[in-house]
Specification:
The structure is a homodimer of 165-residue chains.
Chain A (H helix, E strand, L loop, with lengths): L1 H6 L3 H38 L3 H12 L6 H8 L3 H13 L3 E6 L2 E9 L1 H22 L4 H20 L5
Antiparallel strand pairs in A: 1-2
Helix pairs in contact in A: 2-6, 3-6, 4-5
The first copy, chain A, binds a DNA duplex (30 and 30 nucleotides) through helix 4, helix 5 and strand 2.
Chain lengths: 165, 165
DNA sequence: GAATAATATTTTAAATATAAAATGTTTTGC
DNA sequence: GCAAAACATTTTATATTTAAAATATTATTC
């Protein structure tokens, strides 16, 4: 009974079904990301009176002990140069980062965490990690590994299809 | 040789390792979502001179043939009421949606696609589906199914840890 | 049934996003 | 070496986001 029905699914129908499956996967991915992002956003506001972009800015610097240029920050944070510029102005005025000119290339700046920025970030990072653990922690190690592998493959699929079409 | 080393990983170390793995998973998820979102955003701009939130607004209505209230739209789109309100004002002025009062409850509106909105959305949806296929299409059916299952589990993990902590 | 609480939406204020133009610096090509 | 191109950043103008206040309606409670 099942086989004849399957046989009636022609190539076009199957393609259409796959289409919908792709869309469904994309929507599910988006939902998960939105849920996590919103939770982190509200916790950062409640507990540290800050925002996700500002946290992310500091996090990128924490990972790069030699400092980063504005362009590198823009690429790693995946936001426009204008955004990075505005965030940097704020964080600099709060004393959390420094923006020093580079003698060899006067077009660029080297952005670093200040001592205060490091201290402040580490307070937030500890909590941030707990919040993420809280949300992802019920996945066991092999589930996490599976997801990591699948998403790695997905990422390479996405970047394989180049932007300029 | 491997067992003794594993044995030296005490509970705390293993927890720390898991923490980082959770963060890495979260960042990878975010990267994938950002890549897809940016691509869709720029394509929608280039080809239809519109934005992702506006497309999403219409898409939610397309799926709900009986129309939706502003609050339902807000929940399904996972954005604030204020955003929905602003988007509705725009889309209404462009003639793509209608916002009719509901006699039984004068607080709410019933939002629907207009004929023009349906036509416009279907043009965009066709392309949108192709763009998503383009990015996710290199995953085979079983990879997609695996991801769907993993993300479903992830979603239930996230929502299981309730917001109000 | 009047006062209070809950609900649905819009408006407001502040922050953030982008694209594109402007500015200043370095590199390239002749 | 000078003009043109490429590069890195900031500024500008516009659009979007959110949280919270304001508005209006409905439901509850005593």
């Amino acid at each position: 009974m099942a086989q004849p029905e399957l046989a009636t699914l022609d190539h076009e129908s199957r393609i259409a079904a796959d289409d919908h499956q792709s869309i469904r996967l994309w929507l599910r991915l988006l939902t998960c990301t939105n849920l996590i992002e919103k939770r982190l956003r509200s916790r950062l506001r409640e507990e540290f009176d800050t925002t996700l972009p500002r946290f992310d800015f500091l996090a990128q610097l924490e990972r790069a002990s030699d400092g980063l240029t504005m362009g590198e920050l823009s690429a790693r944070m995946m936001v426009s140069g204008g955004s990075v510029s505005g965030l940097a102005t704020q964080l600099e005025s709060e004393g959390l980062i420094s923006r020093e000119p580079v003698p060899e290339n006067r077009r660029t700046f080297c952005v670093r965490l200040t001592r205060q920025g490091k201290r402040r970030f580490s307070e937030m990072a500890t909590q941030h990690e707990l919040w993420v653990m809280e949300m992802l922690g019920c996945l066991n190690a092999s589930e996490v590994d599976d997801l990591m592998a699948s998403l790695k493959r997905l990422k390479s699929c996405i970047t394989a299809t180049e932007q300029g079409a």
